[in-house]
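note to self: dont lose this again. the chain is below, predicted strucutre after it. 572 aa total, dont forget to put it in the shared folder this time
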Amino acid sequence: MAADPALIERAWSWIAADPDPTTRDELDAVITAVEAGDPEAAADLADRFKADLDFGTAGLRGRLGAGPNRMNLAVVTRAANGIVTWLKGTGDPDVARKGVAVCFDARHRSRDFAEASAAIFAAAGIRAYVLPGPLPTPVLAFAVSHLDAAAGVMVTASHNPPQDNGYKVYDASARQIIPPVDGIIAAGIDATPRAVDVPYAHPEDPDIIRVGDELVQTYVDAASQVGLVPTERTVVTAYTAMHGVGAATIRRAFAAAGFAPPVEVEQQVEPDPDFPTVPFPNPEEPGALDLGIATATAAGADLLLANDPDADRLGAAVPDPTAPDGWRALRGDEIGALLAHHLISSGGIAEGAVLATTIVSSTMLSRMSAAAGVLFVETLTGFKWLGRAADPDRELGFAYEEALGFCAGGLVRDKDGITAALLLAEAAAVQRRDGRTLLDVLDDLALAHGVHQTAQWSVRVPGSDAMEQMVAAMQRMRTSPPAHLAGRSVQRTDDLIDGDPARGFVPSDVLTWYLDGARVIVRPSGTEPKLKAYVEVVEPVRDLADLPGARRRATTALDELVAATAATTGLA
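---
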């Protein structure tokens, strides 16, 4: 790939506007390599400038490095200034006093990006409350409400690979932003001058307030009270922080709640932004729990708990003598059902409260809610919507998404891997008291409501035209929808491309096919070139003796539907 003079000129302009000498030098070296005829450097430079990193409802997320299509100080500077524009335009006369709560995880550059954001807010006359990070994301969500802040910023890329970082924004309700706020901030970013020209306050500016550990302790004390059966604490847990920031807070929360300390996975307990023992620091990824299972086995644990690096998600595994290694990793839908069952059976759902999950999660929660006489609400994907499922005047009793996000106890209106870990440990302790396990609860739920088997299929679409390929695939499925999938007739199709006002759904590129005893949802990822499908099969169970057979039938049907769905997309 030959050097593009216009691209080289754009790169030099970027360097002139970049306030960070590290990324200035990085980009200078890339330009030098391009001008020397290095084709890999030319491709790298083109990728760095092919687009601006989009600011959306998830904020920012991308690979670290120089250029507009990377996470760096210049991009963060402009994002922080966009937040200033949004806050000053809210019409709240107290916005400067209320300020912004700022926190960060242990990823590369997280502290730098948080400190820069605080300095930009302070320079604009908006108070910045800097938490004593690195800390879990739910502590930031708690801080926004506890401090009565006008907004919150969390520097994290959650469970992304080590080369990434991100920037998540919360509004005054302590929930992730939704439209039109994301668009207002994006417009403010576009209107921002060069990053190097955005003013920064001195680190000792009085509008930069260093929040002490007392806020973390307040969160820990409140988190320790989410349990419903405080007499039941006899349970052996193992825990992995997945090289993230959850361990210190988990230790404190478990002690405050009266649990014995979890047996920690030593190789993964300390924060390490390189995540050396896992290729992807996500409890859902194959192999991610291997060290945790080895530790849990050696400890004779009843339950393995796993946080992702910013501790807003919870994975888990339980002993299972039928599994090859003696342990079974629980799917997010299974953890959601177990937590909901514990809350319902222990009186943890207040009268009039709402149980909620997303359109791509299992339908089990809707059946459990109906059986318990509790209001059920379904939302679009993401906790930006789940956190608002009970609006405007109901209590959110419990919410979860299949991607290991859980919200219970009313402490935050966002996913919280700390409180979820406490509740699941308590649920296991209650079952242990009765000579049972969490797997027995899943059997009970299957007998009552049928076997609900779920799976996700996704394909990464290659090429510079990946987004165009996904648009074309979705259009093909809209204009020529399947009449049958794996021998099951498609009885109804829902298309959310124009939204669904009756359910409060904004326009979304989502197709749902309802089949006899099954459901398939297809959508493109909003953050990467992937097409995703979520498949569920519901198999009736005659009695306890039929349960193993029902699970086998459901698994076979699920595999067939996943294969048929993949073929239907045309991208498999």
